[in-house]
Amino acid sequence: MEITRKKFLTAVGGAGALSLALAACGGNSTSSSTGSNGKVDGTGKTLTVLFSTKPQYPQEQQAWFKKTADKFKQETGATLQWETFPTANDEMTRIQTSVVSGTGPDVYGLGTTFTPTAYSTGAFVKLGDAEWNMIGGKDKFVPASLGISGPDDKNQIGIPFVSRPFVMAYNTELLQNAGIDKPATTWDEFSEHGKKLTSGDQFGLAIAYKDNFDPWKFIWGMSIQAGNKLIDGKSVKIDDPTVKKAYETYFGWLTNDHSVDPASVGWGNAQALAAFAAGKAAYFPMTSPLSIPTLDKSAVKGKYKYALMPMIPPGATSRPPNGVEAASILSGDNLVVADYSKQKDLAFAFIKMITEKDAQSDYYSIFGELPTNADAAKALNNDPMVAPALESAAKSVATPFSGAWGDVQLALTNVAVQSIPDLAAGSVSDSDLSSRLKDAQSKSQAALDRAK
Amino acid sequence: MSIEATRKNRRTAPGRSAGDGPSRKSRKRKGVTERNRPLWLLAPGGLLMTLVILIPLALGIYMSVIDLDQYTLRKWLSTPFIGVENFIEAITKTELLRAIWISVSFAIISTVVTVPLGVAAAVVTQNAYRGRAVVRAVFLIPYVLPSFVVATVWKTMLQPDGIVNTVLHNVGIEGGLWLNGPQSYWTLILVEIWAAWPFIYLLALAGLQSVDHEVHEAAALDGALWWRKLRYVIFPYLKGPVSLAFLLGTLNHINNFTLPFVLFGAPAPADVNVLPILVYVTSFQSFRFGLSAAMAVVSLILILIPLFIYLRAVKLDVHEDGVKK
Amino acid sequence: MSTRLSEKQLRSKKQRVSARTGRSAQVTRLMPTPLIAVLTTLLCLLVLVPIAYIFLASLNTDAGVAGGEFWPSQFSFESYTKIWTTVGLGRGITNSLIVAGSVAVVSAVIAIGTAYVLVRFTFFGRLTVLRGLLGLQSIPGTLMVLPVFVLFSSAGTYFGISVIGSRWGLFIAYLTFALPFSTWVMVTYLRGLPRELEEAARIDGASNLGILFKIIIPLSWPGIVVSGIFAFLLGWNDVLFASVLTRPDTATAAIALQVFSAGQEGGAIPVYSQMMAAALVCAVPVVLLYLIFQRYLVGGLTAGGVK
């Protein structure tokens, strides 16, 4: 360490103020004293927690912050300080700066797909038996929700906090009018329904082709159902026929079937939701129960339901033997504890508190975020509105746990982004699609080659 | 001492009278400017800029020569030094050069359009009339709205079935795709112009204030047509401020991240894959912090070269009489 | 000096001009009135049409905005009451006013001193400093944010001053970023000022500082106001640095607004109407401040000239 410092100082000219910058290293953990009753005593200490803001529920979130802080104070004597970030960008900037400087929040709420990246920084506490015990044991969580906590059982950093599985919404009235008695269970059937449900200015499907996230989730889902996990050991498999088939199906809804509003080449998820909410589309795949408040205020109130998205890959009537029964990416928020935190015991006590059954049920009732606590999830099974989502959560599959996943995701989305002019013109040519896939393959492979 | 006294000595326009040079020099020889210079006045600014810009810049440059990514971020001080590797990769294996080209061309086009808009706005609000304050305030609004709101609004209006295309359709034009494909480049320019022209306006407005009343009078005496007066009498006064505005406006456009990010998202369509988006994606989606720092440094260098050529050409930094110090 | 006029000549000419044109405002007119009216209308339309859209969207429902409605199918002023609690807009605006306001004042003060030296005195490296200032302006913020954070956070570690999360940290950062620009605005402005006045004062025995305060500053109000406005807006509009240097208590209005840009993956519709309402509300204090200060934009020489 010392040597590097010196080298560094000489490298940049030894400016005196630079030595200030060297705060970065280390971060020693002083453990809090554990009282005789097994509770953590945090009197006089402050635990900082970084969560995402919920602009849809501002007062509710403030109230929940306060309530939770009060309870935490009562249990441990420690003060809980909340910080929030509005967007994924801000969160990443916060994480980056905190990791480099070794100061910042003790506990972070992270999107699940960001967990592999967080893991690869090595800046978050790996959970051994002792840590899991402090949280109340692994068993209290829905098993599938642990799928993206780490690369394997022994190396986990993420503690599941909420689950946000993807499902599709469908308009019961429109389906009924078209004589469809139950929602599609294969992608081919889904495409057929789409065509059947399209007439006039009403469209079968609402698809957000221009969303920054949606496209890769479709492609990943169809591919894994056909047996392609996209990352297999040290090789990326975007150049696989399954991926191409997935894109053809996904684009085909618009270009061949014409069962999607042509305007959807400009839509993000919100615009697709708005179209479904206005009753202009029969199916809206890739949504979650978080859309309930919007839909209940809309023209389709009482006329919509959720269902699992199809799990039989395009062009097939049954899943191939190596296909995976994947209803959704494993999605939601994980909690991670920073390695530099000086009060890890308190951090785990806090996480234990908010992942208990009652706390999780309460959180669901306020924000509509599905619990990861198994008991709390079970209690919701009777609600027909959220049951499909719970089932989807149980059948969620984690995206590959690799530091290179971010690049794969980016490359998959990029194929869709660059195809949009073609989509708008009416067709995506085979050669264009192939060359975009080739580009995506090589960029992702390069990223995977760097992965450590 | 009143300002009235100076009027006697004023020249019609800056930089016109060549005969002034020697006399000024001779005055200087009396020893006013060379000795007794209050150079300490430079200290506060200099100190701040060293601390908050130059040292971080040095750190940023250091980041560009180490192999910094998500795996090494935490131990960045012991991250291997890899010299120019990031730079080579940035130039040969990424879309950096294309991104710089898109950024620079878009920035220059935007500035070229905003300059006449801004100058026109300054000229029309120069003479007092009832309600002028309101108009001046209206002109400021685009500059005050947060970038992401401006971008969100335009994004909504420019949707394939949005208000812009509807209006165009009604007058018989098919608007087409604004937010993707080749047209997106012009969308970016359009929105940037809308958001940025008040910047030129403000600087031009300040420039107009330095026009002496006498100059107006002299022009009125000559009975000059209004546009000749503008062109030959007033605009020379604006040369300095507008050249500065041109330069800074262009630099601001090049570094604008929020507007293209919210308008087009990341990854951006190839036609608007501007530099800040590329740097952002490299940083926060591929987590190649070292590589993205190298990209930023390369673009900084590529921007500095034309910048200094421009500075020489417009002589922004020498005295108006052209006497180099 | 053919263009120089004696006081007497000047006066008589002025009388003749006044006699001929009637009003003295006519003399400073830069364009025919109809043209001014046309241009003003066009420019106002250019600005106001999108603003109208923002305003209408702020009265619409979120789903209506997402669905691409221009004219809302139902109107509601709810957003304008909600924003105050959603994001703590009041606190954000206060923080922004404090930080951006002090940056405006302090940067104008430092800039005028710096510019005075750069314009009126020669010294080794003067041109380099002037050009370097513009060079600094072209450094991308994304390159700076991490180093600045590391530097500021180490001030906390080594000197026990917690800069991160305080208004001071933000103030110092914005002040510094505003300086190259403010200085240049002042440089271009000061260059237009006549030297004769200063030289006369110097002969009368005035010191450098005396000249700065008694002559330069009173003549430079438009420049000072413009450089202050820009420094203010820099602090007002920044999101990048504020997002890492502030904490909930010290968050600026831009950060508070940023909350509305949160697009939840696969979830609810963004709260568009509040976003639009908050953006308009945040523009109000700036526009008001501008209305107050814009009168100084006619200060300086013109004010001295027009009686």
UniProtKB/TrEMBL annotation, chain C:
CDD domains: TM_PBP2. It is found in: Cell membrane. Residues 1-10 have a biased composition (Basic and acidic residues). Gene3D superfamilies: MetI-like. Its main location: membrane. Keywords: Cell membrane, Membrane, Transmembrane, Transmembrane helix, Transport. Residues 1-21 are annotated as: Disordered. It is a multi-pass membrane protein. Residues 93-293 form the ABC transmembrane type-1 domain. Belongs to the binding-protein-dependent transport system permease family. This is Carbohydrate ABC transporter permease.
